[in-house]
């Protein structure tokens, strides 16, 4: 089987709700990263066989196959197709897996993977406005559980014994790390500036400098009166897009491209849909086994910070080094534009791997309904 490599990865800054990116249609925001991807790689978009695009709330602005309209908005040839994937928060991570599989199988040679979500314009939960997706049999199977991720996060905190102070300390650290990375210019090379309403959005907007356990203490629990989950230890509602260029080493050489990382393995797994957000734990074990890599060989872990208990439970169960977990901050500080987040995290991780000379990186994402993706990549050195 052929190898798959990522040769370029770009993202927009992540905009906060009703922030700098909120006035931009999802297709147009997608077009920004698609254009920058081929421009930075130095290739003609005509070489692209397909565009696989993640998006969660596929209604309104994001309906009717946003992946295809992203291609058209970018001004690419009409002959280039596009499709849209929904695996909840892991949508664009799944898009990367599908792109890698297409390339590895030999069916396609150059595939773009990525995603978008403009949550300011298409609010979280919009797709449920006209109906209930679960159906009576699912509800009966799980004792009419509401399938509310916030309640699931509360259950995880209770099961692993995480106090509010512990969750808030983790959240403050996310902001601290993200602020330090932003100040050091770590994100600059990966971010595509976006022109928006007379200004340019080029830095992540969600970072709250000086966040501490004390400053978070005044926030009220969001899902249970006596709960520990609140707006400050949960991911932010955000806007953003990201794109990755996937091909084979041979095709990369033909096109004059320099691969960044090799795709070593990708998996998806299901887990308890009531706890819902614990899937990254078995997914991590599964992807390491598939790749034949020990946990100790991985130099950076990106575990999406949907809620603070998620990476903390993952950390407790895997025994990974806390210093290697989300070293540049995560979604609590940097935001979580749902369908784009998988590609955003991968972009952030592989740039970090290249900057720091880290050989192996592992990304994993919890998802609504109790599924999770995990992907392992290996740095390619000259």
From TrEMBL:
<protein>
    <submittedName>
        <fullName>Thiolase family protein</fullName>
    </submittedName>
</protein>
<dbReference type="InterPro" id="IPR020616">
    <property type="entry name" value="Thiolase_N"/>
</dbReference>
<comment type="similarity">
    <text>Belongs to the thiolase-like superfamily. Thiolase family.</text>
</comment>
<dbReference type="Pfam" id="PF02803">
    <property type="entry name" value="Thiolase_C"/>
</dbReference>
<dbReference type="InterPro" id="IPR002155">
    <property type="entry name" value="Thiolase"/>
</dbReference>
<keyword id="KW-0012">Acyltransferase</keyword>
<keyword id="KW-0808">Transferase</keyword>
<dbReference type="InterPro" id="IPR020617">
    <property type="entry name" value="Thiolase_C"/>
</dbReference>
<dbReference type="InterPro" id="IPR020613">
    <property type="entry name" value="Thiolase_CS"/>
</dbReference>
<dbReference type="Pfam" id="PF00108">
    <property type="entry name" value="Thiolase_N"/>
</dbReference>
<dbReference type="InterPro" id="IPR016039">
    <property type="entry name" value="Thiolase-like"/>
</dbReference>
<feature type="domain" description="Thiolase N-terminal">
    <location>
        <begin position="5"/>
        <end position="248"/>
    </location>
</feature>
<feature type="domain" description="Thiolase C-terminal">
    <location>
        <begin position="258"/>
        <end position="378"/>
    </location>
</feature>
């Amino acid at each position: 089987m052929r190898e798959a490599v990522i040769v370029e990865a770009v993202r927009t800054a992540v905009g906060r709700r009703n922030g700098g990116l909120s006035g931009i249609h999802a297709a147009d925001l997608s077009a920004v990263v698609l254009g920058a991807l081929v421009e930075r790689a130095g290739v003609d978009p005509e070489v692209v066989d397909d565009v696989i695009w993640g998006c969660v709330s596929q209604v309104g602005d994001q309906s009717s196959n946003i992946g295809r309209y992203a291609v058209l908005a970018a001004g690419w040839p009409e002959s280039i197709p596009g499709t849209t994937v929904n695996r909840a928060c892991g949508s664009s991570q799944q898009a990367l897996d599908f792109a890698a599989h297409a390339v590895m199988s030999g069916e396609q040679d150059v595939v773009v993977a990525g995603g978008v979500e403009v949550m300011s314009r298409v609010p979280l939960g919009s797709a449920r406005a006209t109906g209930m997706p679960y159906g009576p049999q699912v509800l009966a199977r799980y004792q009419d559980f509401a399938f509310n991720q916030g309640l699931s996060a509360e259950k995880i905190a209770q099961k692993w014994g995480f106090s509010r102070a512990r969750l808030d300390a983790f959240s403050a650290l996310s902001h601290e790390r993200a602020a330090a990375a932003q100040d050091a210019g770590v994100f600059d090379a990966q971010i595509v500036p976006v022109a928006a309403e007379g200004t340019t959005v080029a830095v992540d907007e969600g970072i709250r400098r000086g966040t501490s356990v004390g400053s978070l203490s005044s926030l009220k629990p969001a899902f249970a009166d006596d709960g520990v989950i609140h707006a400050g230890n949960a991911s932010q509602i955000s806007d953003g897009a990201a794109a990755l260029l996937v091909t084979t080493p041979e095709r990369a050489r033909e096109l004059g491209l320099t691969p960044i990382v090799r795709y070593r393995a990708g998996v998806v797994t299901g887990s308890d849909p009531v706890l819902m957000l614990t899937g990254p734990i078995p997914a991590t074990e599964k992807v390491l086994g598939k790749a034949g890599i020990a946990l100790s060989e991985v130099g950076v872990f990106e575990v999406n910070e949907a809620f603070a208990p998620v990476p903390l439970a993952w950390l407790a169960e895997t025994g990974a080094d806390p210093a290697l977990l989300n070293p540049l901050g995560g979604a609590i500080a940097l935001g979580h534009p749902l369908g784009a987040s998988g590609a955003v995290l991968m972009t952030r991780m592989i740039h970090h791997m290249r900057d720091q000379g880290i050989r192996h990186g592992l990304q994993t994402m919890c998802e609504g309904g109790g599924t999770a993706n995990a992907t392992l990549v290996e740095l390619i050195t000259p």
